[in-house]
Amino acid sequence: MFTWVQRRARAAYERLLRREISGAPTHVAVIQDGNRRYASKQGGDAPDGHRAGAETTERVLNWCQDMGVEELTLYAFSTENFDRPDHEREALFDLLEEKLYEFGDDDRVHDGEVCIRVIGDRERLPERVREATAYAERRTADYDSFTLNVALAYGGRNELLGAARDVARAVEDGELDPEDVDVAEIESRLYDQPVRDVDLIIRTGGDERTSNFLPWHANGNEAAVFFCTPYWPEFSKVDFLRGIRTYESREESWRRARVKRAAALVKAIGGVELAEARSIIDRFRGSLPEESSVEDLSADDLRIEEMDVESESSMD
Predict the structure, then answer these.
(1) What are the backbone dihedrals phi and psi of residue 115, each rounded to the nearest 5 degrees, phi first?
(2) What is the rounded CA–CA span in Å between residue 54 and residue 103?
């Protein structure tokens, strides 16, 4: 009876969260932490936790597609994971190989036109995992409805270091002018194909850190971060929706900050018409957060500041 009540309450809370959410982030990145601790809590071994976590991964992929998320990146195996015991590491490689082949053949992947890509230092992976990676990527290469990035042998610092070395070699060889080194140039040397800026990072398992994950695309974009206590195999749709809600709250905060900053510019200029103020703000576009626009500002947004300007003029 108690379990039935819990299920009903959870379902009701899930519906409430869904009504509170009006959109979705474009790119969600997940640090899937807690598989081993979950297995230990259940009296099993680490591979049992990883297999349970793989089932959660499939559910999250479905939730993302249902919500309108366009890109999902999973932190499946970090460079630090190579330090784990041999038996645990090999069991994880076995699971990765199996799941990559499964994803490459899965009807849901093909029906949803999911493009699978692996990011990271794949040369450090066993040959069998590299072959499975190539299979999944080849089978889904022509899809563009949804992108699933699987981070294997991944480390954010190593990623940036590799791009920096690549740029340095190109400059030294005369293939690249130092003046041409910009954001686009660095990004082109991080991956073979573009990766969207990360809007939301989710980390399970209770730790509140992002663990060197996608520093260029997450930190550079000041992504929202949602930390939660459930181990990855226990991660539920309610947890997922709470993460989306965190993202929306962050976006609303950014919107207010953009309006306030632009309005402050108008007030500082003083005594100008709204159309002229918009023109002046447009010249200061670089002072606003990336992707903001002067067109975001309506007369209502600036009305208070306009009234302040008029009041100050009448006092002169």
Answers:
(1) -90, 120
(2) 11
Q: Percent of the chain having pLDDT more than 70? A: 76
pTM: 0.75
Residue 306, pLDDT > 70, answer no
Element (H, E) at 305: helix 299-315
> Given the structure tokens 């459930």, which residue do they identify?
230
Residues counted in the chain: 316
Active site residues: 33, 81
Q: What tokens does 218 get? A: 């997450």
Give the separation between CA 203 and CA 211, rounded to whole angstroms: 10
Q: Please tell me the predicted confidence (pLDDT) of residue 54.
A: 94
Buried b vs exposed e over 89-123: b needs ≥16 C-beta within 10 Å?
A: bebbbebbbebbbebbebeebeebebbbbbbbeee
- pLDDT bin (cut points 50, 70, 90) of residue 308 is very low
* Chain position carrying tokens 């965190």: 246
Contact yes or no for 33/234 (Cβ under 8 A): no
Q: 296-301 contacts: CB < 8 A, separation 24 or more?
A: 296/255, 296/258, 296/259, 296/262, 297/259, 297/262, 297/263, 299/274, 301/259, 301/262, 301/263
CA distance 47 to 236: 21
Q: Could you read off the pLDDT of 128-163 as tens digits, one per residue?
A: 999 999 999 999 999 999 999 999 999 888 888 888
DSSP letters along 232-257, please? GGG--HHHHHHHHHHHHHHHHHHHHH
